[in-house]
Amino acid sequence: MRPLPDPAATLPEILGHLVLLLRGAPDRNDWIKKSLDFAMARLAQGPALLEGGIENNWGLGGDPLKERLQVRQIDEVRVAAGASRNELLRFLRALADDFEPIPSTDRVRVRCVAAPAPEPVSSAAPAPPLALPERTRSDGKLAELIESVLREIDDAIRQQQWHTVLHDAQAVLRMLPGLGEAARRMHVIALRRLMSRPVIEALIDQAYRVPEEQRRTAEVLRSGGIQAAELVLDILKKSETVGPRAFLMESLGGMPDAFQVIAPLARSKSPAEARLGAELLGRLGIPESIPLLAALVRHPEERVRLAAIDGLGRYREKSAVEPLRLALGHQSATIRARAGRALAARGSGAIAMPLLAAIEVEREPATWEELVGALAAIDAPEAAAALSRMALARRGLFGLGGGQVRRQLAVVRALTSANTSAAKQALARIAAEGEGEVAQAAAAVLGAGSGSAG
Fold it and tell me: pLDDT of 390-411, one tens digit each?
């Protein structure tokens, strides 16, 4: 976390940085004071309008101020030029908290989403009842149906009927795309107001107890924005048990907007957190994750390196290739083998030469076979040609020495297991041009295939 914002940043950017400080480093009063100085200097230039900007999806765009405004269901905040430091800081502290009532004063006036603008208050107000958006004639029967389901969700929450809450929330999500943009936006807001932290916790607890509801729960969690992402991440950080947390990994990994809460894990000094960060970054599927994963390939803890390699293997961007290629030369045989499989998963013929180069210098027998298997899995002419040359090579090539026949037979086995079009072409060439038991092994595979086909 950067201690101070850029002094030249806009007021919303400075306030967003302050919110992050208040959430992540609330005891650093020196950072908070200096950042507040920057904000007051900007405010002295004129009043400000801060908008939540909730759109028709859950995207938050990496803006920490808007994220918190949306999580706390605030549509806009009007900050007058005469607002005091204490007023602004009090508002920001409440905004940074998940439960602290949001104050509204004459000079820092807050208007909540889908609810009337609150009067200036000096103490906590009771939670408002469910507020539904005003419906226009063009919204039709679908909006009326969604509103009835939202009321059911509200009633079910009060009665702690979490099965009903889950199924109704999923139903709303499935119906929302049928609305026009304006109506969809407001109904999204209404649903998000219902998905408070205690409700999300109850749904997760239910999913632990009822595994068949985990997929449905993951879908609803992915719609929960940063509030849900932070809660899921807190749970994942507390347990490394794979089984129960699998659906949480699925839900958080399917929330690209959660990048900003996941990325700090990749820089953590804790190997467990760094590994979790690598696993989640690999699932996010956004290019911003690649540099962080590339750095984790050099992590001192092997389990972190393996998670980073697996994560890079999920990406098809060219920038993911180089760190994997470099990992082929790592001192750990396990890392070399995993990098080979990750590269092969791209399915590109361009990967054949780097893999072949790694195979030629590999001296660990098990790793050598894994790299050969990775190369065979690529269904491309380049891979078939490289493996054919290996199986047809005369003694002394590829540094095989006396184990050449054994390794050539390993190539045939790898091609057999791959069972791709390119692998079958390579086997046909080996059967036609090879010698001795290597050619016989390839011919036997092709003959067995023909027999089963007939």
Answer: 999 875 544 444 588 899 999 9
Domain assignment of residue 349, yes or no: yes
Range scoring the smallest mean pLDDT among 56-70, 162-176, 401-415 = 56-70
Residues 353 and 454 grouped into a single domain: yes
- Statement to judge: residues 312 and 357 lie in one domain: no
Domain count within the chain: 3
Q: Of 112, 135, 161, at which residue does a domain stop? A: 112
49 burial via Cβ count (<10 Å: 0-12, 13-18, 19+): exposed
Residues 321 and 364 in one domain: no
Quick: pLDDT tens for 43-58. Answer: 888 888 888 764 433 3
Per the structure, the complete domain to which residue 389 belongs is given by: 343-454
Residues 304 and 404 in one domain: no
Global pTM?
0.66
CATH number at residue 320: 1.25.10
Q: Which of 46, 81, 112 is the last residue of a domain?
A: 112
Q: How many residues are there in the chain?
A: 454
Same structural domain, 364 and 421: yes
